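Writing this down once: the sequence line spells out the residues, with the fold written below as integer tokens. This is how one looks:
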Amino acid sequence: MTVPIPPVPKLEFNRSPKHTLGVEWELGVIDPQTRDLVPKAVELIDLVAPKHPKLHFEREFLQNTVELVTGVHDAVPAAIDELTRGVDALQEGAEELGVRLWASGSHPFSDFREQPVSAKMTYAEIINRTQYWGSQMLIWGIHVHVGISHEERVWPIINALMTKYPHLLALSACSPGWDGIDTGYASNRTMLYQQLPTAGMPYHFTSWQEWEEFERDQAISGVTSHTGSMHFDIRPAAKWGTIEVRISDATSNLRELSAIVALTHTLVVHYDRMLERGEELPTLQPWHLAENKWRAARYGLEALVVTSRDTEERWVTQELSELVDELTPLAEELGCAAELNLVPEILERGAGYARQRRIFQRTRDWKKVVDATCDEMEQLRPL
């Protein structure tokens, strides 16, 4: 007997007339004595939120995590200003609670078995389904939403953004430590997160209709029944009318965050403008995309990446330098040229993983790494 296949439901994309911007940044709560994560995020939010009703603080998967969520903005500086006010408010509350704020791609020594999950049925279902891998998700990232005017533009732009996956990851990578060891990776978070059945690189969809068919199949087969959505590294956010870029590790500070947000925002608008002009957007074969993701996770800013369908390769630092030059005129138009031009500062200083690794190699003490990472939250301020 043949089971009839349900019709493909229309997935309404709430089109954005402008390239609006929203940012989500995940922060951890640290015990200043042990330097371990502590499950005081809810307590911190309950302390801070009533005093700052215009700021948006979210509970996250783990009870040690606060997510800062901006409203909808037209430009990067306004979004970063809102995040700055959020961090300042949380810092004030953290001091009152006797804890510290911290951000990174992963914690270098915390035991995932001792970190409680938030009391939410969806999270319990994720753990029940994913077991060992799901329970290890002591990882934090940045999500950047950019408004798109029409759903048929979404997948061409996402496929083009995938060619810049290693650029965004290498620049933000800051998770070399795990379970007390140096993993040898710049972003161990990236390797951990892709173990989940709904996470990882998106498939190469060529139209919105293909995406709708995929979403129907995932719902019928039960893949998304426990989460409600796929957690791809880049995905459409139909409810908001945005493309959501989720590649980057959570940076330790707002200064570097502003550079990554500016690069992300400008890239999305750049590819959308190319579509308007009728130009062909860049793509790479899936095997090159997968290799580039791995190389950026492994080597960070020391990665040699594939840059063309003919398998040409270049150093990602060289690519980033030239990309900043290319995108600066557009960034000036979008009001984020100053933030975009912080990218060379990261190249000179070294990304978060390199700074953490240098401290650990010198001291053999991850607690000193945590201290330094917490300090960066306070010291590396935005423009």
